[in-house]
Specification:
Elements lengths: L3 E6 L3 H12 L4 E7 L2 H11 L3 E5 L7 H11 L5 E5 L3 H12 L4 E4 L7 H24 L25 E6 L3 H10 L9 E5 L5 H11 L4 E4 L10 E4 L5 E7 L2 E7 L11 H12 L3 E5 L8 H9 L3 E5 L8 H8 L5 E3 L1 H11 L20 E2 L4 E2 L10
Parallel strand pairs: 1-2, 1-3, 3-4, 4-5, 6-7, 6-12, 7-9, 8-9, 12-13, 13-14
Antiparallel strand pairs: 10-11, 15-16
Helix pairs in contact: 1-5, 2-3, 6-11, 8-9, 9-10
Amino acid sequence: MTTIGVLVVDDSVVIRRMVSSVLDDDPEITVVGTASNGRIALDKLAQLRPDIVILDVEMPVMDGLATLRALRLTHPKLPVVMFSALTERGATATLDALAAGATDYVTKPSHAGSVAASIERVRLELIPKVKGLVGASRARTASSTTPVVSVPALRPVRQDRVDVIAVGCSTGGPDALTAIVAGLPKDFAKPVVVVQHMPALFTRLFAERLNRSCPLTVSEAVDGQVVQAGHIIVAPGDRHLTVRRQGTEVVVVLGQEPPENYCRPSVDVMFRSVADIYGGGVLACVLTGMGHDGASGAARIRAVGGRVVVQDEASSVVWGMPGSVVAAGLATDIVPLDRIAEMLRNAVIPDARPSSGRVLPASAPRAVDPARGVLASNRRVGGGA
């Protein structure tokens, strides 16, 4: 069995030893080397040839962001997981790193209560990401652990209206969301609700960053907030986001019910809620992400006649979440990242809306049966080149 080679880069010898010990305990992972700063790490890359790098954000000599930028010049596809402090400064630096090409991040344990608790938290968060990201890099396939989703009778997809856009994403999601919202016009006449798997603090800073790069208003959700057209609402870390009717309006409800799919906020929780309130007026987007959060919620949306768009495999960092929706036969559209904003724009303008079931990869389009949500044969849609 080929093990996964990891390079651990952190200026703290305690952190290097802890992370190395956690990773080496897994038989599928080998720590091939460590480094106390970015410059040493860059010097070791050619010799060690790691499959993935765990990179501290704040280091002397050469910090994580500078290291990442230099690394991306020579290793554009090498998975890099930032290891950051759960502070405002650490969160800001991590978001900068994601924008600069980091693949994912893990927050350092804080207030864990004991060394053993800290080690266990690192084990639970870091090992799945190491395996998932290297697996995605070696073979671009959906997760083999994708569960079987109970699929109800699916109603035909509504063509006449879209009342809300609901977006779910995880690994690779910040970049994907940034690209999508930048392509929406300032007069986009629908509300957008988003679940991006992130801890508290990170979600607020991420929403603020999106707001600066988007013609629409973007904010972290507040309990009781009205869901309104032209406003993008991001679920706070550690809070499930649902919606309910209050008179003639729809408002946000935030809660701390148990995690689903090990996630809070959970895409499934949000998808089920918007399906119950908006019915066939839901247009859901499942973007890049590890795991399968969103699949069962997509089933609820399809059951009420809503539409489920997934990001295609080629443009996804990890095709776990979107791949699980496709595997369950729930996708009505499979679209590359650079076409999703266009699809959303068209979906809210009836005269410009493409027919449901259209798939828009860059080449060799594949059809999706809009009544069943499953892939049909590899054939061009709509004719022409």
